[in-house]
Amino acid sequence: MLRVEHISKTFNPGTINEKKALDQLSLHVKPGEFVTVIGGNGAGKSTLLNAVAGIWPVDSGRIVIDGTDVTGLPDFKRAPYIGRVFQDPMMGTAPDMWLEENLALALRRGQRRGMRWGISKAERELFKEKLATLGLGLEERLSTKVGLLSGGQRQAVTLLMAALKEPRLLLLDEHTAALDPATAEKVLELSDKIVTENKLTALMITHNMRDAIQLGDRLIMMHQGSIILDISGEEKKRLTIQDLLDRFAALAGVPEETDEVLLS
Predict the structure, then answer these.
(1) CATH among 2.60.40.640, 3.40.50.720, 3.30.470.20, 3.40.50.300 for 2-96+148-261
(2) Tens digits of per-residue pLDDT, 187-237?
(3) Cα(224)–Cα(227) distance, rounded to whole angstroms?
(4) How far apart are CA 191 and CA 163, in angstroms?
(5) How many whole angstroms separate alpha carbon 82 and alpha carbon 84?
(6) What are phi and psi of 97, to 5 degrees?
(7) I need a labelling partner for 83 at 20 to 30 A (CA). Which of 75, 89, 160, 214 fits?
(8) 3-state helix/strand/coil string of the chain
(9) C-alpha–C-alpha distance, residues 23 and 200, integer Å
(10) pTM over 0.90
(11) In sequence order, what are the residues at sequence separation of 6 or more whose Cβ sits closer than 8 angstroms to the Cβ of residue 214?
(12) pLDDT tens-digit readout, 123-153
């Protein structure tokens, strides 16, 4: 579903602030795989997601989604392929529009706009049905402005919007980092449910080693713009946090007692 082939990205090349964020990175993700991505600050995790989403053009390499080479396409032309949930709950929704209007925009992602009525009766029933699966009572608040919802509610809605059209690839960019622990756990449960039930292909960035181990069926660890560890199947199920710390220290070549090894 996703083929990232030898991509590189350097910011501020030729200056004192030059930073190589991705270094000949390759990653193949099968349809239906839920991949968690972990690594220290500056490892290149967010740059990888932004490159796949089309926010940052890569310096070299190719990005292919479901057989389509999207390397040269800007982010808005990748919209039919990708759903994304950001770290900030304030992003991904239009705060001054009603809940049902936000969902209607998500339902029409990648389509031409016309002059017909914005939301049909059938669509409104669909939105109620989808919102009910969140278990937050939002199905009765279709005419509520999204800006009046709590951070956790907005993030749950953003997650639903990103998956509404069953994108070929769902990108979860540290989407619980700004939430309190209880709300973050609820949003993670919803994420796992939506990805699993809809059989979506997903990449989830996290700093939390426990979440990276518990969620998904494959885990990759990044360091200095490269993938240094790729674990799936039974090996991933047997992982512990100490295993990850030990492997990171060994593969990254840093002492385990240094701050760099503390990913979370």
Answers:
(1) 3.40.50.300
(2) 898 899 889 988 999 999 998 889 999 999 999 999 999 999 999 988 998
(3) 8
(4) 10
(5) 7
(6) -105, 155
(7) 214
(8) CEEEEEEEEEECCCCCCCEEEEEEEEEEECCCCEEEEEECCCCCHHHHHHHHHCCCCCCEEEEEECCEECCCCCHHHCCCCEEEECCCCCCCCCCCCEHHHHHHHHHCCCCCCCCCCCCCHHHHHHHHHHHHCCCCCHHHCCCCEHHHCCHHHHHHHHHHHHHCCCCCEEEEECCCCCCCHHHHHHHHHHHHHHHHHCCCCEEEECCCHHHHHHCCCEEEEEECCEEEEEEEHHHHHCCCHHHHHHHHHHHHCCCCCCHHHCCC
(9) 28
(10) no
(11) none
(12) 889 999 989 888 888 888 989 999 999 888 8
Residue type, 173: D
Q: Find where tokens 């809940």 sit.
A: 99
The residue assigned the tokens 């995790």 is 45
Pairing of strands 2-11, 19-29: antiparallel
